[in-house]
Automatic annotation (TrEMBL):
Similarity remark: Belongs to the cation diffusion facilitator (CDF) transporter (TC 2.A.4) family. SLC30A subfamily.
Chain ranges of the Cation efflux protein cytoplasmic domain: 223-299
Domain (Cation efflux protein transmembrane): residue spans on this chain: 29-219
Gene Ontology terms, MF aspect: zinc ion transmembrane transporter activity
Membrane topology: Multi-pass membrane protein
GO CC term (a single one): plasma membrane
Protein name: Cation transporter
């Protein structure tokens, strides 16, 4: 005895809102990609003119960020594709997968920066402070604009991964500006490497947060803000007809989309007599726990699988 989720006008409205959010996020990502690529070219040109290894390296870094943002945009586009016979849940988790890849990319880029900074601390090289200061001011403006574009959608894990790339660059330019001013006043070239290590530590903290959350979703963990035991107890206490529950699973389909499946033990009566109770239970799960995709199977025996999978 089983049934699927109740179809109501509410999900369609939510779907419309998600579609609007996805369109806005897509435009923001494309503009951020254009800003990063354009500025990477400018950095490379001025870095070669000024013979500045720092600017050339950061040009490569910005180009890499544009690639990461491109992955985020691709994940956003793929997540909007409809389910099919092969991928019945659709492509919702592609956005989570791209966030996971972005986090790994951040780890790699930051490790490269740390290695370069340590190597340069051993052998500091002269830096043209004027070029650094001018490019840092322009870089702050460009990356600040990109951060503001993406900030309003920071609830999205995919966008948050991209945002960490932008914040890394923004903080990097703060370090470059500070370093340029200090170098101009004191000639201490090593200050640039010290600030790079501080920024790298901050970025690694953010990348780890995104990596951990994306991994949790990809392996179908219970959402971190949900208490599994509380959901189970609420279902059991919801109606006197529910005398048992097993095979309860709660997971994330995509960003802000939660699913639940369970077997409910009920008295041996016609299926139609439980329909009102199931409708109310699904509405309760949606309102109280924000679980919108619900699949419940009704059983009149304690466990039809002879106790092999019962969790009671």
């Amino acid at each position: 005895m089983s049934r699927g989720p109740v179809i109501s006008p509410i999900p369609s409205a939510v779907s419309h809102d998600h579609s609007h959010d996805h369109a806005r996020q897509g435009r923001s990502l494309l503009l951020a990609i254009a800003l990063n690529l354009g500025f990477a070219v400018a950095e490379l040109i001025f870095g070669l003119i000024a013979n500045s290894l720092v600017l050339v390296a950061d040009a490569v870094h910005d180009a890499g960020d544009a690639v990461a943002l491109g992955l985020s945009w691709f994940g956003l586009r793929m997540s909007r594709r409809r389910p099919n016979a092969r991928r019945t849940f659709g492509y919702r988790k592609v956005r989570i997968l791209t966030a996971f890849i972005n986090a790994l990319f951040l780890f790699g880029v930051t490790a490269f920066i740390v290695r370069a900074a340590i190597a340069r601390m051993m052998n500091p090289e002269p830096v043209q402070s004027t070029v650094l200061i001018v490019m840092a001011v322009v870089g702050l403006f460009v990356n600040g604009a990109a951060v503001l574009l993406l900030r309003r959608d920071r609830r999205s894990l995919n966008i948050r991964a991209a945002l960490w790339h932008m914040l890394e660059d923004f903080l990097g330019w703060v370090a470059v500006l500070t370093g340029g001013i200090v170098i101009r006043l004191t000639g201490w070239y090593i200050i640039d490497q010290i600030l790079s290590l501080v920024v790298s530590a901050f970025v690694l903290r953010g990348a780890w947060s995104v990596f951990r959350e994306a991994t949790s979703i990809l392996i179908d963990s219970t959402p971190k803000d949900l208490d599994f035991a509380a959901v189970r107890e609420r279902i059991l206490s919801f109606d006197p007809d529910i005398t048992g529950i097993h095979d309860l699973h709660i997971w994330t389909l995509g960003e802000e989309e939660r699913a639940l499946s369970a077997h409910l033990v009920v008295p041996d009566r016609p299926l139609s007599s439980f329909y009102p109770m199931l409708c109310r239970l699904e509405a309760e799960l949606a309102a109280r726990f924000r679980i919108d995709h619900v699949t419940l199977e009704l059983e009149c025996d304690k466990c039809k699988s002879n106790g092999k999978v019962c969790l009671d």
